[in-house]
User: Fold these one by one.
Assistant:
Number 1:
Amino acid sequence: MKLNDIFLNMYFNLNKPKVHAGFLLRLIAFMIDFVIISILNVVIITIFNVEYAVESEVWYPIYFFSHPYYIIINWLYFAILESNPYYQATIGKSILKLKVVDINGNKISFGKASGRFFAKIISGLILGIGFIMIAFTKNKQGLHDLSAGTFVKTKYS
């Protein structure tokens, strides 16, 4: 056995059986979460009477960054729910019986969930390659999972 294989077995605890959630399941979970967050954003826009800064009818992705509350709402939604000790998942992941765990299969902290969220922004900014990696990596990890040291796995594995 190579030294690299020994390190990987120790680091990722691969001897422990895990079923990692694949790209399609995670994409469906994200689409559910996207609908929930969109509704939440519309409610907040309505309550606080936020005016749009976009002058045309075309939506630009940079608009997401022009209003800090979008980032704050998304960050709190993902970080609080994924670090919750009972669910360890957003609503979309819970519906599909997925949960976010660290490399040892334990729940993640709010700080680690926050780091994972902000790494998702980087995954998206590089043309989504950080997300596409999920389909091709051995442990079904995206760039944000690798950087935060997390997995998304089925809840009962």
Number 2:
Amino acid sequence: MAGKVFFSVTMSLDGFMAPEDVPLDLVFTPEGRSDPRARRWQRKWSELQAWVFPQRWFRENLKLGQGGEEGADNDALRATFERTGASVMGRRMFDGGELAWPEEAPFHTPVFVVTHTKRDPWERPGGTTFHFVTDGIVSALDQARQAAGDRDVRIAGGAETIQQYLEAGLIDEFTIALAPVLFGTGIRLFDRVDPDRLALEQTRTDGSSRVTHLTYAVRQR
């Protein structure tokens, strides 16, 4: 039986999943990081994701060293990884990751990149191979489902790609880690989603001292 299609992201209390867009070469290259826009982006991103960095599973998966926190947050990260048989992402997320990820990319499964540019598959150590899909989000999802088998497919991001899958009615459920930070401006998770087309059912809530994990099933109206 095919698995579910889901996404799992961190969101600020005022609804943003990322700071404002800045050029990738500012954020992810040593030459650009002294730029005030890059410093602001990094500060806001670090505040949003602060709950992730201390977790034992995250540290071990990225080979940052042993030890770390255990509990609801660590369990959420591990469960997301374990259920995922393949991922789909947009080209901008991939371009940023190509600059920032370690040589052993942190997915360890096939990843399908929605893009307009043809490119041969890019295999990384540790089981991650990036496949570049030029014929749309449905094709990328079909290929990811086939690769995932009976495991789930994660729509990894960014926001525009998640919104496209929501608008197409292709998301079964999602989890938000609601962080106690305020952005004021940035990239909203649900900006381009028609609220009249979707109905949500809250299915689970888990909290910690750092974030609240909210899980919703998605239904078409």
